[in-house]
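User: Let's play a game. I give you a shape written as tokens, and you guess the letters that built it. Ready? Here's round one.
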């Protein structure tokens, strides 16, 4: 086999992979993703749209793109989302044009979406692009509750609602490709980085 065909027989950086990182609210997904993106080349983050207000320290266009409910509904009508859903009365969606732009720039994309969004992508896919599904979570609901309380952006009733949703989300674990336990931040970063690297090195079929 020629060196060119050997190179073509495996995925590599910028081969159009999509890494979907899902997990309960408060699991630390954004923090882990941010560190991984600093350590691995060729990754771009898909910034989701949402109707919820920013939390303290969040930046529009970086953490989320914050829009009104009317604007969100207009984007749905235009077909601008590859998936969208409602979580505790707030709406979230993933931009089709944003992801297409990332692939066109020769990068792989990493997405932070919830279980329902991951289910939608399972059904629709991303055309020729491979999607890798990663579930990231603390090892217990008690640990998750501690993190939500430390975050300080929800009251006790809201925390209880999020824990109920998290318990339901955990039932979908078997539909994911990988599990990352985020009890230790550095370990979680290393494991997500290893998953991305392994998928980039995976052998594919060459006609």
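Assistant: Ready! My guess for every position:
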């Amino acid at each position: 086999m020629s060196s060119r065909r050997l190179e073509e027989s495996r995925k590599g950086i910028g081969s159009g992979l999509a890494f979907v990182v899902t997990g309960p609210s408060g699991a630390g997904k954004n923090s882990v993703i941010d560190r991984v993106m600093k350590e691995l080349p060729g990754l771009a983050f898909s910034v989701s749209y949402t109707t919820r207000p920013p939390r303290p320290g969040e930046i529009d266009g970086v953490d989320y793109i914050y829009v009104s409910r009317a604007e969100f509904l207009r984007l749905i009508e235009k077909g601008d989302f590859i998936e969208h859903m409602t979580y505790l009365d707030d709406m979230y969606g993933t931009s089709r044009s944003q992801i297409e732009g990332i692939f066109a720039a020769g990068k792989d994309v990493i997405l932070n979406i919830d279980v329902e969004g991951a289910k939608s992508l399972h059904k629709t896919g991303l055309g020729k692009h491979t999607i890798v599904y990663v579930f990231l979570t603390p090892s217990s609901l008690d640990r998750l509750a501690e993190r939500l309380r430390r975050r300080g952006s929800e009251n006790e009733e809201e925390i209880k609602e999020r824990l109920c949703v998290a318990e339901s989300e955990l039932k979908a674990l078997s539909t994911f490709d990988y599990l990352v336990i985020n009890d230790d931040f550095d370990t979680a970063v290393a494991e997500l980085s290893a998953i991305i690297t392994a998928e980039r090195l995976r052998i594919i079929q060459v006609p």
